[in-house]
Amino acid sequence: MNSTFAEAAGDAPRQAAPSARIRTGQTLLMLVRRELWEHRALWIAPLAVAALMILGALIAGLKIHLTHSDMSATDAPDSMVMFAVMQSAVSTPLSLVMLIVVSFYLLDCLYAERKDRSILFWKSLPVSDDLTVVSKLLVALVVVPLLVFALGLLLSLAFVGIWEVNAAFGRVPAIPGWDTLEWLRAESALLVCLILGVLWYAPIAAYLLLVSAWARRSPFLWSALPPVVAPILEYVAFGTHFLRDFLRYRMFGIWQTLFSHVHIGRGRAAALSSGLSQLDVRGAFTNIDLWLGLLVTAVLVFATIRIRRYRDDS
User: Which of 3, 123, 161, 313 could serve as a FRET partner for 228 with CA atoms 20 to 30 Å apart?
Assistant: First the structure.
């Protein structure tokens, strides 16, 4: 009998661990949903830009009156050239909007909690500072980028559909020989670029989150001062540009590695496919600076959690 109770007691912690992980996952999911509910610009802004782009494409389609005879066979767009045009037209505005709204979100999310005193309410709930801070970083680095990527994918398909509808009315030439496999390959390459971008810029996101937790006022100003003033002071004091070069590398270094082997061919149709096939994905993911940046991210997140735990501006 005693051994039975002992075995049951010994199994209790092992049985409780999965439910604890489930509760943690559910809490994290609720925190993510709360962030999207409270900061609606994170998803409203990309949707608004997408709607405006669709509207612009529809209006442009009504104004185009080209026929097949207006364009020679050599000028007719092939599938990969059209896909490159669609993707560049879609990804650039959505990426810019995403960078803007995510940056403002990271600088404001923890600062606003203290400013409007809602932090007192959230701290009264059984939710740890760890999960709260991680949920905000998760929204900025995972949830919003994936939503924007999915939106861009649907939008590029919508643009192709609009083009084909106009082609059916004889306004533009049809896209010949659409290659689904090539399209999926290009989307996979874009997803790899998205993942690399998230990992590479994670320290910057964590830095903005730290400023949001630390600054008593004007987090936007405090976030901009160090990267602007420090290189100037270094040049005045030592006549060197190490900080400036480091900041420049931290902004664009991963893309120099990723595209270091890309040599675009002469043919328009081969331009996109050849470029994507030459991406140095292995070199980018094995870049030591990428993983050192993630280590710095962990340190900054830990500091943010500690600051949020003890600062309420009271």
Answer: 313
Angle between helices 129-138 and 79-115 (to 10 degrees): 150
Contacts (Cβ under 8 Å, ≥6 apart) of 45: 97, 100, 101
- Report CA torsion sign: 100, 37, 207, 311: positive
Residue 3 parent element (H or E):
helix 2-38
Contact between residue 254 and residue 196 where contact means Cβ atoms under 8 Å apart: yes
Report the alpha-carbon angle 265-95-41, nearest 5.
165
Structure tokens at 89: 């037209």
- Tell me which residue of 130, 147, 242, 260 sits closest to 198, measured CA to CA: 147
Dump pLDDT digits (tens) for 114-147: 876 665 555 556 678 888 899 999 999 999 999 9
Residue 219 neighbours by CB under 8 Å, 6+ apart: 107, 108, 111, 211, 212
Look at residue 239 and tell me whether its pLDDT is greater than 60: yes
Residues 6+ apart with CB under 8 A from 234: 240, 241, 242, 243, 244
State the residue for tokens 């509910």. Answer: 37
In angstroms, rounded to a whole number, what is the distance separating the alpha carbons of residues 314 and 312? 5
